[in-house]
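Anyone up for a design puzzle?
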């Protein structure tokens, strides 16, 4: 992944904010589930000790089994019903998505495709060997280093969906607009002359 560090200035702060928020949100969800599980376990343990201390000795096993069954049923119900209500996504669908993400990351990429993605992002930034004239005229904020990574990941997905074993440059071009569009900021001159962000990206491809 060191290739993605080629000629990268410090203009990725805007994107890093959104990435940080998503990371914190994901971590908070996991922490919430973990704390919830600990509290539920502690609650059922408390119920078990309370009930075992208030029933006759011959009924203690029966009471403990009822508590364990209650815990098991409520856990299953949470993962089938409660999880989707809490997070808006099915628990097993989320696991399937993670599996697909891991599969996509294992797709091999040729060096020339990696180089193209890095150079394409460098074309959107000032003061790099690949800076284009249209960038100097119409762009005030270029794409950051993560754009190169997402171009490659997007190209892998595009290739996989089209039955390819590995992405090529055409796959990078196919996903370039949706990946770069929100990462670039055009200036007033571009607005005045009627240049859209897609037309600027198209000229850089």
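Challenge accepted. My sequence:
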């Amino acid at each position: 992944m060191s290739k993605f560090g080629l000629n990268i200035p410090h203009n990725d702060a805007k994107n890093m904010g959104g990435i940080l928020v998503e990371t914190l949100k994901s971590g908070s969800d996991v922490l919430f589930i973990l704390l919830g599980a600990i509290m539920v376990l502690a609650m059922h343990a408390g119920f078990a000790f309370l009930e075992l201390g208030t029933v006759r000795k011959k009924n203690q096993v029966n009471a403990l089994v009822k508590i364990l069954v209650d815990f098991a049923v409520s856990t299953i119900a949470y993962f089938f019903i409660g999880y989707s209500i809490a997070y808006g996504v099915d628990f097993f669908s989320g696991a399937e998505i993670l599996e697909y993400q891991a599969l996509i990351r294992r797709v091999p990429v040729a060096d020339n495709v990696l180089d193209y993605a890095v150079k394409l992002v460098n074309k959107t930034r000032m003061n790099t060997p690949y800076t284009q004239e249209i960038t100097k005229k119409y762009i005030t904020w270029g794409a950051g280093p993560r754009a190169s990574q997402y171009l490659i990941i997007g190209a892998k997905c595009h290739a996989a969906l089209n039955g390819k074993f590995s992405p090529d440059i055409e796959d990078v071009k196919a996903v370039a607009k949706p990946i770069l569009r929100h990462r670039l900021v055009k200036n007033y001159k571009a607005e005045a002359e009627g240049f859209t962000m897609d037309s600027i990206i198209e000229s850089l491809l």
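A detail worth pointing out: Confidence is low (pLDDT under 50) at residues 1-16.
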